[in-house]
Amino acid sequence: MPTIEVTENEKMILYGLRAMFAENSKKQLEKVEELYFAKSKQTLFTKKELAEKWGCTVVTVGTYLNASGVEPVDKSGKKFLFDLNQAEEAKRDYTKRTLVKHKLETRARVM
Questions:
Q1: Distance between first and last Cα of the chain
Q2: Residue 27 is inside which H or E element, if any?
Q3: Cα–Cα distance between 57 and 78 in angstroms, integer?
Q4: How far apart are CA 73 and CA 46, in angstroms?
Q5: What total number of domains does the chain contain?
Q6: CATH number of the domain that 93 lies in?
Q7: For residues 63 and 87, is the Cβ–Cβ distance under 8 A?
Q8: Is the same domain home to 61 and 75?
Q9: How far apart are CA 83 and CA 47, in angstroms?
Q10: pTM here?
Q11: Are the C-beta atoms of 104 and 86 separated by less than 8 Å?
Q12: Which end of the chain is less congested by CB atoms within 10 angstroms, N or C?
């Protein structure tokens, strides 16, 4: 196989191209990671997204949020966005209150 002689200038150009391609590929990987993992880092959700996440209806999510007095943080188009931490806390509180209420009603019926 014949060998090609490369001058110093050509070597520098090749090294520069390699560095540029490596830098571009890193940037592209970062962009892909941002888009791919954006959903896992998301903190604001609509009622519909919360319903899909929790496996219940939008009406149930609305009940959780209204009962605990959680206010929307932001708005996306026509839909309101709620903070995930506040929404999950509202769900826990509502579920806990409902269970306690059910327990008391059961005791009252037994008496």
A1: 98
A2: helix 8-41
A3: 19
A4: 10
A5: 2
A6: 1.10.1660
A7: no
A8: yes
A9: 11
A10: 0.58
A11: no
A12: N
